[in-house]
Amino acid sequence: MRAMTRWLDPDEQRTWRAYLAASRALMDTLDRELQRDAGMPHAYYEILVRLSEAPDRRLRMGDLADAAGSSRSRLSHAATRLEASGWIRREDCPTDRRGQVAVLTDAGFAALAAAAPGHVEGVRRHLFDALSPAQVDQLRRISEALADHLTR
Amino acid sequence: MRAMTRWLDPDEQRTWRAYLAASRALMDTLDRELQRDAGMPHAYYEILVRLSEAPDRRLRMGDLADAAGSSRSRLSHAATRLEASGWIRREDCPTDRRGQVAVLTDAGFAALAAAAPGHVEGVRRHLFDALSPAQVDQLRRISEALADHLTR
DNA sequence: CCACTCTTGTTGAACGCTCAACCAAATGGC
DNA sequence: GCCATTTGGTTGAGCGTTCAACAAGAGTGG
């Protein structure tokens, strides 16, 4: 027999539903804006960001997947599309013959540079403008605790 | 000429990335667990929940979409699948001949009852167990402010 | 009563994600 | 050196979501 379910009390219930509604609405909004204004989903934007920050704008596929919080399969599919758009290209890894390295092209960097201001503005408008400085700090601590707990 | 972008300062940057990583990891985990243990994505679970709480376990499609935080199109596709699974059925609305009413079947209620304990346990383990009571309260306020700001 | 507009809900195509299966190369024992 | 296992990455099928287009009924002003 399984242990009894630890149900949510009314406060927790309220918190969970609010969190669900808010984060879904936030991500949906940002995703839609990015798709509309820059022609890419948020997941692709993040891949380009991570690449742009890497030394030489290049990363092993696996490292890129980790950095972007993506599964390997997802990144592989995404890379196929990003390569077709001319925003990245794939090269063989010199030190591991199984490996592939994703490289951000100049066109990819330009696409990112074009998309960034609008997206950042969206993040500010939809997220930070709604919160007090104290809440921003709380949200950071909460998120870090959560991420740490989840990846432990 | 557009106004200059209000870029994120380092603290905001850190908060935003932590939030992104945490909420993505949380939702991915819960979604995967629900899919594995109950054979449904989280979006479908939420549809069933909302229906189960409605009077007579029935709701107009539009109201159900709003309650579940879904677009009408998404709900329509989902309803097609849920109906094929025998978990809901659609009836004509008596007061509006355009309208459809989604009704939770007994099988749907049973599927929900079977899925709920495991899912709630997951929410507790992955979310609430990682946070202090004060943080839960902060998260609720933050989420409510956010949701309010977004739908305003 | 008619025309215009709005609302409700559905549909199909394109797209992105997941999952499982898979290949190739690296690694670790023995 | 060889075989088994692990790691890196890709692939295809199936599913869910989005978007735009659509059909049909409800509401509204004249």
Description:
The structure is a homodimer of 152-residue chains. Chain A is mainly alpha-helical. Chain A has a single domain (21-151), classed as Arc Repressor Mutant, subunit A. Helices cover 66% and strands 9% of the residues of chain A. Chain A contains 6 helices and 3 strands, in the order H-H-E-H-H-E-E-H-H. The first copy, chain A, has helices spanning 10-38, 42-53, 61-67, 72-84, 106-126, 133-151, and strands spanning 58-60, 88-92, 100-104. In chain A, strands 1-3-2 form a 3-stranded antiparallel sheet. In chain A, helix 2 packs across helix 5. The longest helix of chain A has 29 residues, at 10-38. The radius of gyration of chain A is 19 Å and the shape is globular.
Number of helical stretches of at least 4 residues of chain A: 6
Mean pLDDT of chain A: 96
Q: Strand count, sense and closure of the main sheet of chain A?
A: 3 strands, antiparallel
* CATH homologous group name of chain A: Winged helix-like DNA-binding domain superfamily/Winged helix DNA-binding domain
CATH class of chain A: Mainly Alpha
Shape of chain A: globular
Helix share bin of chain A? 55-70%
Task: Output the radius of gyration of chain A.
Answer: 19 Å
**Oligomer class:** homodimer
The main sheet of chain A orders its strands as 1-3-2
Q: What's the structural domain tally of chain A?
A: 1
N-end to C-end Cα span of chain A: 28 Å
Q: Name the poorly predicted regions of chain A.
A: none
Give the largest interface: A-B, 52 and 52 residues
What string, H for helix and E for strand, traces the elements of chain A in order? HHEHHEEHH
Structural class call of chain A reads mainly alpha
CATH topology of chain A: Arc Repressor Mutant, subunit A
Strand content of chain A: 5-15%
